[in-house]
Amino acid sequence: LQNLIKWFVEENYDQDVGLVIKTSIKNNCVVDREYTLDLIKSCVSNYSDRVCKIYLLHGYLNDEEMNGLYTHPKIKAFVSATHGEGYGRPLAEATCCDLPVIASGWSGHMDFLNDKESLFINGFLKEVPKSALWPPIVVEPSKWFNVQESDVIRKFRLFHKKEKLITKKAKRLGKKNRREKSLKAMT
Hints:
187 residues; two-stranded parallel ribbon; 7 helices; 41% helix
């Protein structure tokens, strides 16, 4: 999250562009929300010369609220620099709402995203730091994906430059995923 905020602030070439962070680290609690706000403030504090629109949506949203977020006219893309996803439900939901996706080019979401209709961020596998191990879920010698900063910035710029074309491709992917990944299709 810190890197994504940093890269957004550094690339904020258009003051009309904002970043919406939808997160909940632990149990939707107030302490977690304050921790996340402090994290955002600390990331932005190094750039006092820049005005950035960063919004935090913290905690649980029901299906209708999430759909409203994915389909809001001011939300232009879904960005995820994830280390790895078993499936990546939020990414799948975003595609089914025709929202362009910019995501790590590795892990479970590769089953329903493709490089023709999504923007994949390049990176590399690296051992999970000991501080992030989570037995029995994440154990040694697990590895996770680390995106390349230069490629994240390149994808931000590409999306800004070719938003209409990328949005058109996202609609095509959304139609495909709604057809192929529906409950009826899976049954």
